Amino acid sequence: MTPHAAAARPAVIRKAITGGIAPNLIDYAATRASFSWESARAQLDGMRGGGLNIAHEAVERHAQGVRRNQTAFRFLSVSGVRREVSYAELSQLTNRFANVLRALGVGRGDRVFLLCTRVPELYIAALGALKNGSVVSPLFSAFGPEPIATRVNLGEGAVLVTTASLYRRKVEKIRAQMPTLKQVLLITEEAVSADIPGTLDLGELMAQASETFETVATAPDDMALLHFTSGTTGRPKGAVHVHNAVVTHHATGRYALDLQPEDVFWCTADPGWVTGMSYGIIAPLLHGVTSVVDEGEFDAAHWYRILAEERVSVWYTAPTAIRMLMKAGAELARAQALPSLRFIASVGEPLNPEAVWWGQDVFGMPIHDNWWQTETGGIMISNFAAMDVKPGSMGLPLPGVEASIVRRDEKSGAVTVIDTPGVQGELALKTGWPSMFRGYLHEEERYRKCFAGGFYLTGDLAMRDADGYFWFVGRADDVIKSAGHLIGPFEVESALMEHPAVAEAGVIGKPDPVAGEVVKAFVSLKAGYVSSEALRMELLGHARKKLGAAVAPKEIAFLASLPRTRSGKIMRRLLKARELGLPEGDLSTLESGA
Ligand code: AMP
Questions:
Q1: Do residue 360 and residue 509 come from a single domain?
Q2: HSE-up of 129 (CA within 13 Å, CB side)?
Q3: Burial of 565 (0-12, 13-18, 19+ CB in 10 A)
């Protein structure tokens, strides 16, 4: 059964292996049967005393070996500068950064936050901090001051690496509100003075630091990465990831992205989000391939030029970007010959069957959807290079990953597996894969609630068909997915309520043909305030200033009052149903009169 089958298109895109480069995974059933996480781990070096460090596997393993002169990163700056960094150079640069941290007294387990666009220093700092045994937490550069302060405080950030301009715009005013932050290291920028009190010039420190460093032999279960993700209520959740995640990064790079030694790989995700870290930094390096990093924002013609000029062979992108490329037209797509391109994958939100077919039409290959989330640390369900693709489906679980559709009993918490094809339930994963998150920082109870009956419960609704392919249905909660990024309605509501005119706020995701969803806020006003276009614009501006463009609402509507449950919770579900003209569902808990 194909719930989202495109009209007049076959339900399956058949794959045939026709010479050329053989995919890493050819026989899914056989690979799955013989796979073990122990053997996947054995493909990595490890460190003395049973240690494991992501940066050693990603950088040192190649810097000391035959791939030392291979380009690790090819950085394309917005000003048109192209900088190639080999594995050997990456080793030296990351050693320098690790020495900078050590000299500042920043050690094992200390949290290093990164706030910048896709500049080389971001990559060097992330890997150097891991070498030092420190924990890396990336922040999206489009965040406003509030999301930055919230995350640095939750994560007890000791160091922030940023640029002078971002510091001035977003951090300076809130610096006093981040008491754990000991050091701010500023990336040297042309035309912006880095001479700001309370900060250090990273360029100078790097120049003085030694380029030799012995990578800390972290334990596999030591915290390595802290990724913030959004929930429905309360504060963002700090998902804790450990060095052992590298085993999943390596195995998924091999099977789901089909990375092979001569590939030029381009992951378009920003390292401020988990995809940009796991697959924009770590996985390609583990395979010793060359990664293209483009600092610029989306631009269809520019993207096609990158694919052509950099001879990208494996491209990992997202549905919003694909929909924007589709909008720009097939002609533009076909204007460049892309003889090197051999595999395209996408993640982050539902990928429409039309988009999968569009890939087939304009590039001669389907877009391969895959599924995972911040908590899983790596790809869990995927369409593989050698396998038939059912457009609209997320594919099959990775070897080593057991995915099921389950039903959770609200009262007892008991979990029942649904075996019947086509029946919806919650997507659940058997615990035990190496990159599983190990906690929500300081929130043991919230973490515990994600598990039952030996499963991690993902919060996504899905179904499985008779061939075992998984199909995404929707989220089980109110979290918004806009342009591939999770946005917690509570964070947006809280910022709106800080405006003196706002009495209450309710925030929903409104379907959008390009971004998947856009953030829409409903507000009611305090006595003495009257709704007007001027106030609406003021609130939009207020939210943007506090939250940043990536999180702030795109639309605001005024309501006399917001629908609430008898226990006082805003009924976002009802706001959404009313917005979309859908049935209002069970209103038994609605406060009368709302
Ligand atoms: P994040 O933790 O920000 O990576 O977001 C994870 C969420 O994005 C998942 O729980 C899904 O709701 C959604 N998601 C990720 N990949 C897909 C996909 N291939 N199809 C549908 N939804 C997806």
A1: no
A2: 28
A3: middle
Residue span of the structural domain in which 45 resides: 28-36+39-464
- Out of 432, 464, 496, a domain closes at 464
Nearest-CA residue for atom 8 of ligand 1 = 348
Query: Ligand 1, from 240, 368, 372, 389: best to mutate by most atoms within 8 Å of Cβ?
Result: 372
What residues in the chain have per-residue pLDDT under 50? Answer: 1-6
pTM, 2 dp: 0.92
Q: Is 517 in the pocket of ligand 1 (CB under 6 A)?
A: no
Residues 6+ away with beta carbon under 8 Å from 486: 229, 230, 374, 479, 480
User: Cβ(539)–Cβ(500) under 8 Å?
Assistant: no
**pLDDT tens per residue across span 211-248:** 999 999 999 999 999 999 988 777 899 999 999 999 99
- With respect to residue 15, please indicate whether it lies within any of the assigned structural domains: no
Does residue 472 line the site of ligand 1, with CB under 6 A? yes
Same domain, 488 and 421: no
Report whether 220 contacts 244 (CB < 8 A): yes
In a domain, 444, yes or no: yes
- Contact (Cβ atoms closer than 8 angstroms) between residue 284 and residue 266: no
